[in-house]
Amino acid sequence: MNKELFDLASWAIENAKKAGAAASRVAIDRERSVEISYREHKPENIKEAAKRSLSIEIFADGRFSGQTTSDLRKKALEEFIANAVRTTRLLAEDPYRSLPDPHYYQGRSTADLQLTDPAYSGYTPEERHKTARAMEEACLEAGGDKVISVTAQAQDGENESVLLASNGFEGGQSSTFYAGVASMTAQDEGERRPNGYHYAVAIRRSEMPGPEEIGRTAARNTLDLLGAAKIKTETLPVIIRNQDVSRVLSGLLAAMYGANIQQKRSFLADKRGQKIASEVLTVIDDPLLPGGLGSRTFDNDGMAARRRIMIDKGVLNEFFVDWYYSRKLGWEPTTGGPANLLIPPGSRSVAEIMQELGRGIYITGFIGGNSNSTTGDSSIGILGKLFENGVPVQSVAEMNIAGNHLEFWHKLIEAANDPWPYSSWRTPSLVFKEVVVSGV
Amino acid sequence: MQAVSRRSFLKTSALGLASGALILDGGWLSHANGAAMDYFAAEFGISDGLCEKVLAKALARGGDFADLFFEHTISNYLILEDGKVNRAYGEVALGVGIRTVKGDQVGYGYTQELEEKSMLAAAATAATIADGTTATLPVKFSRVSLADRYPLKKLYSAVPLSDKLPLVQSANDKCFALSGEIIKVNATLNDQQKRILIVTSDGVKAEDLQPNSFLAASVTAERNGRRERAGYNFGGRREFSFYTPALVDELCKEAVSRVLVLFDAVKPPAGEMPVVFGPGVTGILLHEAIGHGMEADFNRKKISTFATMIGKKVAEPFVNIVDDATNERLPGSLNVDDEGTPGQKTLLVENGILTSYLHDKISARHYRVNSTGSGRRQSYEHFVQPRMRNTYMLAGPASPEEVIGSVQKGIYIKDVSNGQVKIGEGDFAFYVSQGQMIEDGKLTAPIKDVNIMGNGPKMLANITMLANDLQMNRGGAGMCGKGGQGVPVGFGQPTCRVQSLTVGGTQA
Question: Do residue A209 and residue A334 come from a single domain?
C-alpha cells in the first residue's frame, strides 16, 4: 500500500473524528495517464494527465453524506472535512447507515492479483508514438481505397488507491493499463460513411495484441458495415458478438442490484432460486481472477471479495447487495456490484455455429435502446450481418430487437468459444433462437 | 467583506471555500461575490502576468495559439429515499487545462494545483505538440464583455440547507398524496455552480459563472401485482427561487400521471410507420438526427453524413432548425463558450437549406469562418470539441390536432429517455418512455419502452407537418455525451409529423 496515501487517509479519518463524526471511510485515488492519437500520419492529440481525489463518507448522529475533492492540501482538507460533518448533521436520520460489521472485512485474499505491469515505467514516449502510428498505418493499408478517415489512439496509465474505514478497515491497490483503439470511416453508397472500430485494453503490455492487428481489425469491422440495408421484419436466430453481449446483459443485471430490489424497481426481486434463463446461462462474478481488469480483494464497502455464481445454469442464485441495502432488506450482503463477470464459453466457434444455423443475424453493434429494470421490457437497435447457408451475405442497419428479459434469456441456446478478453466482462458470443428482428 | 482577510484565509484554505460551498448552512460563504468578474484573481491569485508566463511556455515550440481554462465547480446532490432526505453527495473540482494548438493538432496538459510550477509543467506537456524552434508570442489579452443569460443573484451555496430540504421532502409527500397506488418515491435536488476563466494567447480573457440545477421525482406504482416506474424533472440554469411549491406540485402531477398511464399500455407495434412527436423533450430527435452530424469536427474530417451537404436542400421549406446559446436559463445556454467565444445562435437549417456547421476555433480556422461559439468541454480535464447547446426546430402553421389528425395509423411520442446516432451513416435511435397509438387520426392506447430508428438526412426530408406549439424541454438533467465527455444541453420542437420511421416494438 502506498504509504503517502495511507498516511493522508488515516489523517483524514482522525480529522473527521475530531470534527465530530461517529465514523468515516476515506478513499484516495491517484492516477497518471497519457494518450496519443494519430491521424493523417501525424499526432492529432497528445495529452498527459495527473489527477488525484479524496472521497470521504461521514457517519454522524445517525446521518450520512459523501463528499469528494481534488485538493489534498491538509489545511484545505481540514476545513473540507469539518464542513462535511456539519452538513451531514443537517440531514434526516437514516438508521440503516453504518460501516460494515468488521466481520465482513475478514478473509481477504492475499493472492497477488497481478494488476501491475513491472515494465510500465520503461514505456517511453517514442514507443507510444510508434504504437499509435502502427495502428493507423495498418488500418489505412487494410482499408484501402474505401478509407475516408482513420484515427488511432494509444493510451496507458497507472493508478494507486487506498481505502480506510474508522472501524479498522485498511486496503490498497495499484494497477496499470494499456489501451489501443483504431477507428475508420469508409465511403459507402451516396452519403453513407460507415464508421467501425476495434480496441483492446490490458493490464500488461505483453497481453495487448500487436498494434497492426488492432488497425487491421478496425478496417475489417468497418468494411463489414458497407452496403447496409434494412430487411423485412422476421423471426430469426441471432448471434450477439462477444464484446457486444454486455449491452444486453447489463439490462438483466440492473434488476439484480440491492438498490433496485429494495426500491421495488426490479423484475427479478422475487425470482431468487428460480429459472430465469436457459441452462446455457451461467454468470460468475470472479474478483480474484489474476490479471482481470476488474479484479480486487475487497469491494467499496471493504468487504472481502469472493467468487460467486450469480446465475447457475439459468437459475438466479445471488443478488448484488452492498452493506447499506443489505441492512434495508434484512438480507446478508454479497457485494455492491460485479468485479469480473464471466460467462463460461462453449466449444464451437461463431463460424461453426453459423454453419449449423444456416440463416440468421450476427449482431455486431447496438444503437439507442434501453431496458426497464422494473418490468424487464427492453427494445434496442441493432447492426450486423445477415447470414445465409452459414455465410454472411448482407450487412443490416436500422433494425431492432425487443422483448422482455424474463422471456429473452430462455431463448439462449449456445455460448461460443470466444470470451472477449479486453474487458472486465469476459463474455463469449451468445446465440438466441426465434428472436423477432424488426425492420421494414 | 474585506479583500485582505478573505484572501489570506483562502491562501491557506482555497478549497475550504469549495467544501464550505457544498451544502453549508449559511456561513461566510453566503457572502461570496455572486458576480463572475475576477473570481479567480481574488480567490486563487491568478494574475494576468502569471497567465502570460504560462501561455508563453505553452507556445515555446511554436503553434497557432494556446489557451488556459480555469475551473472551479461545486456540485451537490440531496437525495430522498424511503420518505426522508437522508443522503447528500458533494464534489469540488478545481484545476486548469492548458492547450496548445497547431493546425488541427492539439497538445494538452492539466493540473489540479493552481501554482506556477505545476501550471508551467502542464504547459510544457501541451507545447510538445509543436516541433518548431521559434516560440509564438502571445498577444496581450483583454477582457471580453459578455451577455448575462443566467444571473445567479444568490449562489446555490448560499441557500441554506433549511430551504433546500423541505423542498425535496415535499416532492415525496405530494406524490404519495396524489395516488394510493404509489409505493416508492425518489427525489433528487442537484445544483452545480461552475466558475470558469478562459485566457487565450490570441487576446481573449473571459470569465463566467454557469449555474445548472434540477429537481427530479421518480415514482414506482403497483396495480394488481404489476409494477411500473416513471419520473419527471424541472431544471436548467435557474435561480434556486425557481423551485417553488407550485412547481413541485406540477412535478409530482407529471411524475404520477406518467406512471399510472403505463398500466394501460399495449404492446408497441414493429415496423415502418408515420410518427408524430409531441412538443418539447422530443426535440432529442433533432439532437440525434441532425445536431451531432453538424458538429464541424466530424465534417472537417469528412466523417459525417452531412459533410458535403452545406447549401443543399435537406428538408421542406417550412423547416428551420437552430442551435442556440442565447436562450435564457436553458441547460445549453452560454454567455461564453469554453474557448472564450461569446455565446450565439446558429442556423443549422434555414427554410429547408443546410446552412452552417457548429464550429470551435480549430474547425473555424479550417473552414475559414468564424467560430459559432460551440467549443465546449466537460471540465478542465478535457479537450474542447464542437458541441450543441440548445437545439430546436421553429414552429409551423398547423395546430397540434391537425398534425395528429392527419395520421391514419402510427404512433405519438410524448416522452423519451435517451438517444444515439452513428455520425457517418446518419442512422439514429432514441428510446420512447411514453407514447400513444394513433388510429384514424385519434390518440388511443398508451405505449412504452420502445426504440425508434431512422436516418438523419432521410428523416429531415420526411418532416411533413409542423404545428404552432414550439416548446423547449423543461428538464435540467439532460446530458449529451461525445468522446467520453458530458455537457448539459437543451432541446425542443413543436408537434411535428415524420412520414416514416422504424418502430422497434414486439407486435410485428
Answer: no
Please tell me which of the candidates B104, B309, B427 has its beta carbon nearest to residue A398: B427
pLDDT band at B478 (very low <50, low <70, confident <90, very high): confident
Q: What is the band of A1 on the pLDDT scale with cuts at 50, 70, 90?
A: confident
Residue B245 pLDDT > 80, yes or no?
yes
Q: What is the pLDDT of residue A38?
A: 98
* Percent of chain B predicted with pLDDT > 90: 86
Report the Cα–Cα distance between both ends of chain B, in Å, rounded.
69
Q: Is the pLDDT of residue B23 over 50?
A: no
**Looking at the structure, do residues A174 and A258 belong to the same domain, yes or no?**
no
Residue A276 lies in a domain: yes
Helix%, strand%, coil% for chain A, nearest 5: 25, 40, 35
pLDDT category at A329 given cuts 50, 70, 90 is very high
**In the 8-state DSSP scheme, what is residue B360?**
-
Measured CA to CA, the distance from residue A205 to residue A202 in angstroms comes to: 7
Contacts of A103 (CB under 8 A, 6+ apart): none
Q: Residue for cell digits 494527465? A: A49
Q: What are all long-range contacts of B2-11, with beta carbons under 8 Å and residues at least 24 apart?
A: B3/B42, B6/B42, B7/B42, B7/B45, B10/B43, B10/B44, B11/B45
Range of the domain at A321: 234-438
* % of chain A at pLDDT higher than 90: 96
Q: Is residue B15 over pLDDT 80?
A: no
> Cell triple for residue A256?
439484480
- Taking contacts as CB-CB distances below 8 angstroms, the residues of chain B near A34 are none
Mean predicted lDDT score pLDDT of chain A: 96
Across the interface, do A47 and B109 touch by the CB < 8 Å criterion? yes
Which chain B residues are Cβ-neighbours of A201 within 8 angstroms? none
Q: Whose CA is closest to B109, among B126, B129, B95?
A: B126
Give dist(CA B170, CA B140) in Å, integer.
Answer: 53
Query: What pLDDT shows up at residue B136?
Result: 86
pLDDT digits (tens, 9 = 90+) for A292-309: 999 999 999 999 999 999
Q: What is the DSSP letter of B289?
A: I
Which residues of chain A have a CB within 8 Å of the CB of B421? 367
Residues of B in contact with A46 (CB under 8 A): 106-108, 125, 128-129
Rounded to whole angstroms, how far apart are CA atoms A323 and A64?
A: 14
Q: If you count residue pairs, one on A and one on B, with CB atoms under 8 Å apart, how many are there?
A: 294
Residue B293: closest C-alpha in chain A: A193
- Strands A341-342 and A425-426 turn out to be parallel
Backbone phi, psi, residue A351, to 5°: -60, -45
pLDDT in tens, B330-375: 999 999 999 999 999 999 999 999 999 999 999 999 999 999 999 9
CB A64 within 8 A of CB A58: yes
Instruction: Give me the number of domains chain A comprises.
Output: 3
A134 and A10, same structural domain? no
Select from B261, B287, B308 the last residue of a domain. Answer: B261
- Domain-embedded: residue A61: yes
Average pLDDT over residues A209-230: 97
The whole-angstrom distance between residue B308's C-alpha and the CA centroid of its chain comes to 27
Query: B498 is in which domain, residue-wise?
Result: 270-504
pLDDT of the residue at B508: 60
Tell whether B252 and B360 lie within a shared domain. Answer: no
Check pLDDT > 60 for residue B17.
Answer: no
Between CA A239 and CA B89 the distance in angstroms is 42
With an 8 Å Cβ cutoff, are A438 and B504 in contact? yes
Contact between A113 and A292 (Cβ < 8 Å): yes
Quote the strand ranges of B241-380, DSSP E.
Answer: 270-277, 321-324, 345-350, 353-354, 375-376
In the prediction, which pLDDT does B5 show? 29
Number of H helices, E strands in chain A: 9, 17
In this structure, are B344 and B493 located in the same domain?
yes
